[in-house]
Amino acid sequence: MKPKERVLNALNFEKSDRIPIDLHNFLVCAKLTGKPFGEVFHSSSLIAQSQLDAHKIFDHDMLLIEAGVATLAESCGAELEYPADTSPWVKTHPFAELNHREIKAALRNMEVPDPAASLPLKIMVEAVKIILDEKGDELFIMGRADQGPFSLAGELRGINEFLLDLAVGAEYIEDLLRFTSEVYFSYADAMMRAGSHGTSMGESLAGPDVISPELYKKYAMKYEKEVISKLKAKGYIISNHICGNVDAILDDLIGTGANIIEIDGKTNLKSACQKAKGKTCIMGSVNPNVFAHGTVQDVRDKTIETIEAMKGNYGFILGPGCALGGDVALENIKAFVETGKESGKY
Q1: 174 Cβ contact list (under 8 Å, min separation 6)
Q2: What is the DSSP letter of 249?
Q3: All domains of the chain, ordered by start, with CATH?
Q4: In angstroms, rounded to a whole number, what is the distance separating the alpha carbons of residues 39 and 82?
Q5: How many helices (H) and strands (E) does the chain have?
Q6: Residue from 330, 327, 323, 329 nearest 144 by CA
Q7: Hey, how many other C-beta atoms are within 10 angstroms of the C-beta on 173?
Q8: Contact in structure between 31 and 326 (CB atoms under 8 Å)
Q9: Contact 145, 188 (CB under 8 A)
Q10: Nearest to 98 by CA among 176, 183, 151
Q11: Would you give per-residue pLDDT tens digits along the chain (346 residues)?
Q12: Distance in angstroms (rounded) separating the CA atoms of residues 320 and 328
């Protein structure tokens, strides 16, 4: 069975020869090139080749193509720092120094970045095309569309300021979220039109570790659901990832309608399995800390524990709970994939 078939079966809650395996490993891929990460993330060919080289080493089923969580922010005017050994981060936030009324005024004059013209987006779209030409018939290619509407809004305003503004219901919030929803949709649509088999959003700011479940439902979920609905109406496969423990919002997260929900090791996987069964596919959830600080045996044990928790649910893709650091031991990643193949047979 081809890797892509395994993933598609999981999305349709159908049995395969074994559980499909994902690696959230863009930083590991960058490390394998031996080049500064900033150089890699500015090159479509290097991003693509790094993913293809990693697949030769690990032989996983699903490639997640991204350059961190700041690509859309940069396309909207944020200034980024590109360190040599980790993912890029937002250094200056476009709306950081503006008051609430000034943000509303600025949004009226802002245009949604064109993925064919905005360099950060164009690089990622081209990387996806290169990989698809090489492995598109074999592997499932997830062209990740960076931050979802809520998290992108935080990067444009400045995370601390945005969270404080949420608490008082600042008048610009809905305007900003409508804009970031359009930005996200445009990029996700471009990733899919490039040939990606699926796309995704990361909503790192939207979980209970950061905001209350009430605020999640009022703001983040509302716009996630809208944009996911628009993407699915075009026949696209869409994944939604929220970091941390999402037990308190799990029903709402499933309710966004995403084909896949990506959860990490802090969430109760057995409960998630029961609630998601037949509704959405779960991807995860081995904690990246186990990869980073554990032994090969620790990784094997946690992988088996994760597989056992999902027994009886074909709607499951085994993967790390979040992005792996670039310095993770390759032996630990190999042990994860090998264990998944050995213990993940139905």
Answers
A1: none
A2: G
A3: 31-283 (3.20.20.210)
A4: 8
A5: 17, 10
A6: 323
A7: 21
A8: yes
A9: yes
A10: 176
A11: 999 999 999 999 999 999 999 999 999 999 999 999 999 999 999 999 999 999 999 999 999 999 999 999 999 999 999 999 999 999 999 999 999 999 999 999 999 999 999 999 999 999 999 999 999 999 999 999 999 999 999 999 999 999 999 999 999 999 999 999 999 999 999 999 999 999 999 999 999 999 999 999 999 999 999 999 999 999 999 999 999 999 999 999 999 999 999 999 899 999 999 999 999 999 999 999 999 999 999 999 999 999 999 988 999 999 999 999 999 999 999 999 999 999 999 8
A12: 12
Using CA of residue 142, residue 63, residue 294, residue 30, what is the dihedral sign?
negative
Q: In the numeric block, which tokens belong to residue 290?
A: 């186990």
**Which residue in the block uniquely carries the two structure tokens 């802090």?**
266
CA distance 286 to 319: 6
* 288: its two tokens: 């990246």
**Amino acid identity for residue 158 in this structure:** G
